[in-house]
Amino acid sequence: MGTIYVTQDDAFIGKIDERIHIKADKQKLLEVPLIKVDGLVILGRANFSPALVAELLKRKIPMSFLTTTGKYLGRLEPELSKNIFVRKAQWSVEENTEKSIHIVKAFIRGKLKNYRNFIKLRHRQIPNNRLQNSSDKIQQIIDSLDYKNNINSLRGLEGAGSAIYFGCFDQLIKNKQFSFSTRNRRPPTDPVNSLLSLGYALLRHDLQSAINIVGFDPYLGYLHVSHYGRPSLALDLMEEFRPLVTDAVVLNLINNQKLNPKDFITEPLSNALSLTKEGLKIFLRSYEEKKQSKFKHPVLKRQCTYQEAFEIQTRFLAKYLMEETEQYPPLIIKK
């Protein structure tokens, strides 16, 4: 089953024996054995029982809260892992030291290489000078990473690479009903940005869950600047997965016409775009299918799901920080 997504307003989520039971208007919506659940995400308004909360905490199953537009609100999380040694290793690495610079370079390299592989795939399908130029420019940034030894400079390169990618993102869209000009959020005001923001919010839930399992402090990252209440390490580990999971889901739904402009509604006050109930179900189903899809992990040389890869990559980071390995290998998938 994986993650359960609750989108029905005023639904009630309870526990009956060893199962999660969800109902609305006195009708059963879903009943799933707890043993098959690794996360619960509530989008919108829903009620839940104290017995459910106690059981989720006992089983170390996180529960996250999002608005219907995909804005992340917070999460109910089990007690932090007892592995204090992972957190000690994490806290001991200061900014602009050899280890922190290595980690930041790896996060950026993984993200930009996956961006470039996406662009190259589209260019092979339909040759396009704009895509070729974007691919070449991102490769130049990747090559320049080795010559930067300051984290602020590296952050600048990451920003430049992302700008190039989103500058040609419209070329990755094959469906003429959709267009993309620039990345916007808080709130997203067009369909493509609405889907990206929702997907990244779900990805954050998944990476933060993996971080908690491994035993890291989610608020101390290396690439993302620390701010009060900001899970910087979750945002760091998300980077290499953004194109592999969220962007892949969004482009699949758009290009294969599984969603259309009628699946979106505009919020009256904020002008934010969000999915209709039916559109949201389609998106969540596709996102979960992507998480459970398998690929050959380039380091482990075996099949795994993206859901498993979230924890695998987090454990790779722990091994590097605890000096059990010589480097952190970002997840890079060739298309």
UniProtKB/TrEMBL annotation:
UniProt keyword Iron, yes or no: no
Catalytic EC class: hydrolase
Reply yes or no: does the keyword Nuclease apply.
yes
Kindly list the cofactors needed: Mg(2+); Mn(2+)
Q: Where does Mn(2+) bind?
A: E158, H224, E239
Q: Which InterPro entries match?
A: Cas1 (IPR050646), CRISPR-assoc_Cas1 (IPR002729), CRISPR-assoc_Cas1_C (IPR042206), CRISPR-assoc_Cas1_cyanobact (IPR023843), CRISPR-assoc_Cas1_N (IPR042211)
GO MF assignments: endonuclease activity
Q: Which Gene3D superfamilies match?
A: CRISPR-associated endonuclease Cas1, C-terminal domain (1.20.120.920), CRISPR-associated endonuclease Cas1, N-terminal domain (3.100.10.20)
Pfam families (alphabetical): Cas_Cas1 (PF01867)
The record's keywords, sorted A to Z, are: Antiviral defense, DNA-binding, Endonuclease, Hydrolase, Magnesium, Manganese, Metal-binding, Nuclease
| Top-level taxon of origin | Bacteria
EC assignment: the record states: 3.1.-.-
Q: Which PANTHER family match?
A: CRISPR-ASSOCIATED ENDONUCLEASE CAS1 1
Q: What does this protein do?
A: CRISPR (clustered regularly interspaced short palindromic repeat), is an adaptive immune system that provides protection against mobile genetic elements (viruses, transposable elements and conjugative plasmids). CRISPR clusters contain spacers, sequences complementary to antecedent mobile elements, and target invading nucleic acids. CRISPR clusters are transcribed and processed into CRISPR RNA (crRNA). Acts as a dsDNA endonuclease. Involved in the integration of spacer DNA into the CRISPR cassette.
Name the family: Belongs to the CRISPR-associated endonuclease Cas1 family.
The record's note on quaternary structure and interaction partners says: Homodimer, forms a heterotetramer with a Cas2 homodimer.
Put simply, this protein is called CRISPR-associated endonuclease Cas1
**Native organism:** Cyanobacterium stanieri LEGE 03274
The major lineage groups are: Bacteria, Bacillati, Cyanobacteriota, Cyanophyceae, Oscillatoriophycideae
- Record gene name: cas1d
